[in-house]
Amino acid sequence: MSYSARLRRLKELGLPGRAIADLLGVSESTVSRLLRDEGRAERFFRKEERQKVLLALEADPQGLLRRWLFARTKESLRRRYPWIPEDDLEALVLTWLRRRAPGLFS
Question: Which domain of life is it from (predicted)?
Answer without folding.
Answer: Bacteria
